[in-house]
Design goal:
The protein has 8 helices and 2 strands; from the N terminus they run H-H-H-H-E-H-H-H-H-E. It is an all-alpha fold.
């Protein structure tokens, strides 16, 4: 009788979880952490990420079975790394978690900001100036053009990477853009427009506030 299912709800405890989806999300998390921190530390190895995602999506009766948030990921990651490596990477992981939690807080503020074709520039930025080399100007211009036309983004021309904070953040955003636009993971696909607009916003600011 369908009445028996009136209050039935699918959660991570009552649903059948795709093992391929777990591997995909674990692989994405592993890649993003390595990309952001530029290290091969075992604390966020593929095994650690897979166990973390598996733990979240196969909860015990004492764990959350729905509405998984970023902090849940952090706690599951700590437990998973502890199971795999003991306390060998405790200090390193605590440092990484502190940075990630700060980054997540910043991202949430960005995500809740209203987006439009032309993003408003805060008044305090109007007097800011950044000095760019011709190489940096050319790359930013090419990046802006490619993002506006939904094309593949140009690589940063120097092997050492940028040294200026705004350019470093722009490069990270460009890397996320390439991952999102080459992925079929729903969580990434929903952020594609925002990532693109963020790149255009950052490029516009750099090109209108730079000095050569």
């Amino acid at each position: 009788d369908c009445v028996a299912f009136d209050n039935f709800q699918l959660t991570f405890r009552t649903a059948s979880i795709s093992s391929q989806s777990v591997r995909d999300i674990a692989g994405w998390a592993h890649h993003m952490l390595r990309l952001h921190f530029r290290t091969d530390s075992s604390v966020f190895s593929l095994d650690a990420m897979h166990l973390t995602v598996y733990t979240l999506t196969h909860p015990t009766f004492e764990d959350k079975d729905q509405d998984i948030e970023f902090e849940d990921f952090c706690q599951a990651w700590e437990k998973s790394a502890g199971k795999l490596y003991g306390k060998r990477f405790d200090n390193e992981q605590k440092s990484l978690l502190t940075e990630l939690r700060g980054y997540e807080k910043e991202q949430q503020q960005v995500m809740t900001r209203p987006y439009s074709v032309a993003l408003p520039v805060p008044a305090r930025r109007l007097h800011e100036i950044i000095y760019l080399t011709q190489t940096e100007i050319d790359w930013t211009t090419a990046l802006q053009k490619a993002a506006s036309e939904n094309q593949a983004l140009p690589r940063y021309p120097l092997t050492k990477g940028p040294r200026k904070e705004r350019l470093i953040e722009l490069l990270k955003c460009a890397a996320l853009y390439e991952i999102a636009f080459g992925s079929e993971i729903p969580q990434l696909m929903t952020h594609r427009p925002r990532i693109r607009l963020t790149i255009l916003d950052q490029c516009h600011w750099l090109l209108t506030h730079h000095r050569h």
